[in-house]
UniProtKB/TrEMBL annotation:
InterPro entries: RraA/RraA-like (IPR005493), RraA/RraA-like_sf (IPR036704). It comes from Massilia pinisoli. This is Putative 4-hydroxy-4-methyl-2-oxoglutarate aldolase. Its cofactor is a divalent metal cation. It holds the Pfam family RraA-like.
């Protein structure tokens, strides 16, 4: 019996509904990471070129060999408006995988942003364009376009496995990834947590609640305070 081998380039993926992406975009990455079980946050090495950059959208995943961007070009040819390119560049900083020309093409396509586990270049121009770009550094060296890779396969980026179609949300704090099946529940939890944190901050600033209500209970559970004892 013969078995067909999945292609290296998977053209079609299931994407999160645009209304869920729009809702997720309203929440800080920290809120989403907390309610998703404090997992899914990429390494802090992957940072925005400007702290004002934000993005949200389904992941279009790209696996490249260090220093080669052939498969990024292939992915861009398949990308749909709203996609986020998530590129496993193996953390290589010896050359840039993308620059102003490719970012300009991404903007024209309608891509929502880019997350690169590697280096980029033309950073001043990209900042001026205002396009959301997250990377681990910059390098003026250009890449090759010779080595095959994969598009829309699972990738490892900043210590996190990212699957095609995963929800990607990023802001000044970094990048968080949520599995599609968990997104509706995570958004419900995020709404409550944001409301709770807003109320907590209001309590601090007004002087009405200057310490957490849970503190004494947590200290007793940890054995710092005896039962019935308070600070």
């Amino acid at each position: 019996m013969s078995h067909s081998t999945p292609p290296d380039v998977i053209r079609d993926i299931e994407r999160i509904a645009p209304d869920l992406v729009a809702r997720a975009a309203h929440y800080p990455s920290s809120i989403l990471a907390d309610v998703a079980g404090r997992r899914g946050a990429l390494s802090s090495r992957i940072a925005p070129l400007s702290p004002t950059m934000r993005l949200a959208g389904p992941a279009l995943t790209i696996d490249v060999r260090p220093g080669d961007n052939l498969m990024i070009h292939a992915a861009m040819a398949l990308a749909k408006p709203g996609d986020v390119l998530v590129i496993d560049g193996k953390g290589d900083e010896s050359c840039a995988l993308m620059g102003e020309i490719m970012v300009s093409q991404c903007m024209a396509i309608g891509i929502a942003g880019i997350v690169v586990y590697g280096a980029v270049r033309d950073t001043e121009a990209i900042r001026a364009l205002g396009f959301p770009m997250y990377a681990i550094g910059a390098n003026p060296n250009g890449p090759t376009k010779l080595v095959p890779g994969r598009v829309n396969w699972p990738v490892s980026v900043g210590g996190v496995t990212v699957n095609p179609g995963d929800l990607v949300v990023a802001d000044a704090d970094g990048v968080v990834v949520v599995e599609p099946a968990k997104v509706p529940a995570v958004l419900q939890l995020a709404e409550k947590k944001l409301a709770d944190e807003t109320a907590r901050i209001d309590g601090i600033r007004s002087g009405k609640q200057l310490r957490p209500t849970w503190l004494d209970t947590a200290l007793r559970k940890a054995g710092v305070l005896a039962e019935g004892e308070t600070l």
